[in-house]
Amino acid sequence: MGREERKAKLKKFRQDRKLWYRNLKRVLKLKIKRPRFVFFGKQPETKSVVLSNHVGAYGPLTLEIYAQFPLRMWGTHHMNTSFKELWRYQTQIYYHQKKGWNIHLARLFCLLASPLTYMFYKGLRLISTYQDHRFKITLRESMEVLNNNENIVIFPEDSNQGYLDKMTHFYNGFVMLCEVCFKRNMDLSIYTSYLRQKDNVVLFSAPVLYSELKEKVSSREEIANYLLNQCNALGKVDLKEITDDQFS
Length: 248
Description:
Number of helices: 9
Shape: globular
Helix content: 40-55%
Radius of gyration: 18 Å
Distance between the termini: 10 Å
Largest sheet: 8 strands, mixed
């Protein structure tokens, strides 16, 4: 497929979002440039889980704006409940703890940033995640999304020490989702994805079925570590060895 044919194909797809939100994404394109995508297998189509690095806000923004497959994202419930909760999360956790900003600067900045962020995440149709018994709500909504032939994008990295190029730990909540689906005769394909911001490239691994992972490793933590290593490996790929046909 030639370059012009690929561009024409890209223009045909759009996420299932409201009109005002699609217009907002057009504005965001002025800051978030279109990356090159590399797929070492097929592109996600339906009923898949994509595990990606976060890179601050760039990971979610890049995939939401430019990914050419239907998706819904997991995100902490703090970003998806009330404006007050979002402002508190952004000032104390996101900008102060994770990004190392001065707390007073973070509070001042979020007076402007939080209203825009709140609007963005409402339009994103984020699937809220929880660290308590309410996680069953996350699982239920995720099942509905998958049954609707969409894909779920999850950012499972432990970012307590900030967003690192080489991630150190994956939370394993996504394994619970895969296991619940598996018990309901839905064997999910799992992809890892890595945004290399300096190169403006997003790399996707070949998919692996959850059932195949269960044969290789047994526990949730082992599965999470296996996929963590696979995701980090994408960040080390030599782009010079990738042919033009692999880029899209």
